[in-house]
Design goal:
Blueprint lengths: L7 H9 L9 H4 L3 H30 L6 H49 L11 H43 L1 H8 L2 H38 L1 H6 L3 H53 L5 H42 L22 E8 L10 E8 L4 E5 L6 H8 L7 E6 L2 E2 L5 H5 L2 E4 L10 H6 L7 H10 L3 H5 L18 H15 L3 E5 L7 H15 L3 E5 L11 E6 L2 E6 L1 H7 L2 H16 L1
Parallel strand pairs: 3-8, 3-9, 6-7, 7-8
Antiparallel strand pairs: 1-2, 1-4, 4-5, 9-10
Helix pairs in contact: 3-4, 3-5, 3-10, 4-5, 4-10, 5-6, 5-7, 5-10, 7-9, 7-10, 9-10, 14-16, 16-17, 18-19
Length: 598
């Protein structure tokens, strides 16, 4: 497992990160300004009541010797009322702030997912899916902690700090001046250790993301891992990443603990010293016992506020890092984007597809062209088969038709309109895809087929399944069409998954049909049944078939032979065999070897 990114770019981000990164959360907070104001008012109420309470205590202490029992009772009743108000305000603050945090984090998760789900496949060549999931879950959990707790607690402690210092000054300017002498000694370790804590927080989050990515990759490939008896190395790789994450977390926790110890010790040592001086002033009748107790309570509030702020500082720094990581997703540049002023899709879509001098270099292989100067005209309703050795560029043709990537050179058009001039959703709505590795969702068989056309009726779903030779095996499932097929279609065989994917494409009833090795996982009988359905479907629409098994494309209107990203020949099956070129060699290998094997 590779270590988290340590490029100069990452280092710059670590150095530049500040608490100010939390400002990026404002667009998500803005819609809930009323809730924020209510939470701040509740917070101010609790802080104010906390600052009033020491005054009531002073009154009680200074009047212990009074003969007026009714007055003393009033002071105790007032103290009790203040305590009740404090409890009510605290509960209200918690409810409002927690609700705000949950609402904002839910919005952030939706915004990040909405952004990522629309990113082109080129984006996912440079980032692991597990890391994206880590950011959506772990990082948003950190932000929830900050919005739902830390920021509220921080603001409350800032109010207590400022208000407490002001009231300490009113109570005793002399003792307050002595307390303030401690402040520089407290601030220095916060600044020094805070920088170290910030760097460790970012590194910790990077390792957590790496750990999540490692686990996601292994679990989604669990059959391959087990088939090659690689459980041991896979466990070791995950354990290594997890231990490195723990090591960084341990250093982060240790740094934060040391900072907390130093700050709290300095603060409370100062309070003890000031209390000793105040006790001598009481003995000398320079101040009353009640005033000293009031001052001590304020000093404790201030000291507690400083200690709490030193702890919250670390949480805010971690949240700042998490915010940056989420903002990176929200602001990520996509290589494939919709035009600012899109052209409408031609109506009706006839299905004419043209490649004009198209070359393609994948981002992960910039020096190795997947397509090299391809010119291709596909007429409406024509069935075109793409054949050739692995890596010849066949699937790249399909990728460009769906505009998962943009050509490095040239352009691809649908009915004469450049795909890059239309919204991707608009023209993809007129295309149906059956990929080589069909995607089956953790839903029912019916829902998987209906994914091709969400508004289709049950009768239409079943008709599509019959056409794809999928009806019989679906009816044999425990609950028929309503059977949950498991994550990635765990209950289905490879051939069954492919037939469900074909039924999905049939149900979509799009004018352009893209078949990428659509029958590669089928047995001979199922292949014949599905091939007949595909042939019927292809008669009324433009069909592009990617195939290694030449027997499945003999009836195509035209066969395009590709090699090393170029079109090297095209024609009918018989014509290409007669040319005795690459296609003829492939045909001899498949048909002659197949006969010999029998």
């Amino acid at each position: 497992m590779a270590a988290p990114q340590t490029s100069d770019d990452t280092k710059d981000r670590e150095k530049s990160r500040r608490i100010g990164a939390l400002r990026e959360l404002w667009p998500f907070l803005r819609p809930y300004r009323a809730l924020m104001v209510a939470a701040i008012l509740a917070l101010m109420l609790t802080a104010s009541v906390s600052l009033i309470l020491p005054m009531a205590v002073r009154r009680v202490i200074d009047n212990f010797g009074t003969s007026d029992a009714a007055l003393l009772d009033k002071y105790f009743a007032a103290a009790l009322a203040i305590a009740a108000l404090l409890a009510l305000g605290t509960g209200l603050r918690y409810a409002l702030v927690t609700r705000l945090g949950e609402r904002v984090v839910a919005d952030i998760r939706k915004a990040v997912f909405d952004r990522v789900i629309g990113m082109s496949p080129a984006y996912f060549e440079t980032i692991m899916t597990g890391e994206v999931l880590s950011r959506v879950t772990t990082d948003t959990t950190l932000i929830l902690s900050v919005i739902g707790s830390s920021i509220s607690v921080a603001l409350r402690n800032v109010l207590l700090l400022v208000g407490g210092l002001a009231l300490m000054m009113v109570t005793s300017a002399k003792l307050t001046g002595l307390v303030l002498l401690i402040v520089p000694a407290v601030v220095v370790p916060i600044l020094v250790l805070g920088r170290r804590l910030r760097a460790l927080s970012r590194e910790n989050q990077d390792w957590i993301a790496a750990s999540s990515g490692s686990a996601s990759e292994a679990l989604t490939s669990v059959q391959t891992v087990q088939a090659f008896t690689n459980e041991g190395p896979t466990r070791a790789a995950f354990a290594d990443v997890t231990e490195k994450s723990y090591d960084v977390a341990r250093r982060r926790v240790t740094t934060r603990a040391v900072m907390t110890v130093i700050v709290i010790f300095l603060v409370f040592s100062g309070v003890v010293g000031v209390l000793w001086i105040g006790a001598n002033d009481v003995r000398a009748d320079a101040m009353s016992a009640g005033a000293l107790v009031q001052f001590v309570i304020y000093a404790v509030l201030v000291a507690g506020a400083v200690g709490a702020l030193s702890e919250i500082w670390g949480e805010l720094q971690r949240a700042a890092g998490a915010t940056e990581r989420l903002v990176e997703l929200l602001q990520a540049e996509d290589a494939v984007t919709d035009p600012a002023e899109p052209l409408p899709v031609p109506a009706p879509v006839r299905g004419a597809i043209t490649f004009e001098g198209v070359s393609l270099h994948y981002p992960s292989r910039p020096d190795d062209p997947a397509l090299d100067g391809v010119d291709l005209d596909i007429a409406p309703g024509e069935t075109v088969a793409l054949v050739g050795p692995s890596g010849a560029g066949k699937t790249s043709i399909v990728q460009l038709i769906l505009r998962f990537y943009d050509p490095t050179e040239g352009r691809v058009t649908l009915d004469g309109v450049d795909l890059a001039r239309m919204r991707r959703q608009d023209f993809r709505a007129h295309m149906a895809l059956v990929p080589q590795d069909p995607v089956i969702f953790a839903a029912s068989a019916r829902e998987n087929i209906r994914f091709g056309r969400p508004d289709a009726s049950d009768a239409q779903v079943e008709a599509a399944a019959r056409a794809a030779a999928a009806h019989e095996f679906i009816m044999a499932l425990p609950q028929g069409y309503d059977t949950q097929v498991g994550e990635r279609g765990a209950m289905l065989s490879g051939g069954q998954k492919q037939r469900v994917a074909i039924a999905r494409a049939i149900l979509r009833d799009a004018p352009v049909l893209l078949l990428d090795e659509a029958t590669s996982a089928l047995d001979a009988e199922s292949e014949r049944a599905v091939q007949a359905a595909v042939d019927d479907l292809a008669r009324t629409r433009t069909t592009i078939v990617v195939a290694h098994r030449l027997a499945t494309v003999k009836k195509a209107d035209r066969i395009i032979v590709m090699d090393h990203g170029r079109i090297v020949a095209q024609g009918t099956h018989d014509a290409l065999v007669a040319e005795d070129g690459l296609y003829a060699r492939l045909a001899r290998l498949q048909f002659t070897d197949g006969i010999a094997a029998q």
